[in-house]
Amino acid sequence: MSSAPVGGGCLGGRVALVTGGLGGIGWAVAARVVAEGGRVLVTDLAAEDGGRVADELGEAARYVQLDVRAPRAWQAAVAGAVSEFGGLNLLVNNAGVWRPGLLAEVTVADAALSFEVNQLGCLLGMQAVIEPMRAAGGGCIVNVSSGAAMGGFPGQIVYGGTKWAVRGMTKTAAMELGQFGIRVNSVHPGSIDTPMTASVRRPSSGNPFGFLPVPRRGRPEEVAVLVVHLASDASGYITGAEVVIDGGLTAGPVMPRPITD
């Protein structure tokens, strides 16, 4: 960002657009933006539930329905953010779908949907915010990728592939947009406690995350803190980076805990 914050918090006076904002990580990010003094346009595919934004986040937030696969919808959402709040400084590309499946079993329909939402949606979002961020003197884009983009994971051929693409696009965008004062980074969550991961089958007893260095699931609020930090002036020298938040899952091969007694 090119200018100092106005008001309280590390995002005071700044405007964010968050996709997939009605649940999980997106909602936590939107709430954190408001808590840090920013204003936020919360977007999601759902046509209803927009009233929740005003009720829970207050006057600093607005809601707009957005299908991230549609270029015209992106143009309208970005124009709405600029019209409502006077500019746009931060984009969080968070909207995504998860379609697990082995290579031999994945369907064309699941592959197409994953590409359109996870990869194309991210690309269209970055395109849509270039001009308003240039007009604002700079900005920040945070693309929510995945720990599945840091290695190979069985059953994630489609999801992981699109998230690897997000990781790569982030680096290219950082190289192209730096000249305009726009930083671009990706975050790579592991297993976070969100509605999207609620259907994952886990053992009925014991701690299924006990093998991790941090032996638990992550919380959306923890990812939100990271996203807002990357958007703040404290991260002004960080661009083109991939920041992992996964409890240590991708730190190395999963090994049994050492015997210490």
Helix and strand topology:
Elements: E1 15-18, H1 24-35, E2 39-44, H2 50-57, E3 61-65, H3 71-85, E4 90-93, H4 108-135, E5 139-144, H5 157-177, E6 182-189, H6 220-231, E7 242-245
Parallel strand pairs: 1-2, 1-4, 2-3, 4-5, 5-6, 6-7
Can you characterise this structure?
With 261 residues, the protein is α/β, with parallel strands linked by helices. The chain has one domain: Rossmann fold, CATH 3.40.50. It has six helices and seven strands, in the order βαβαβαβαβαβαβ. It has helices at 24-35, 50-57, 71-85, 108-135, 157-177, 220-231, and strands spanning 15-18, 39-44, 61-65, 90-93, 139-144, 182-189, 242-245. The protein has a seven-stranded parallel β-sheet, with helices on both faces. β5, α5 (157-177) and β6 form a beta-alpha-beta unit. α1 (24-35) packs across α6, α3 (71-85) runs parallel beside α4 (108-135) and α4 (108-135) packs parallel to α5. The radius of gyration is 18 Å and the shape is globular.
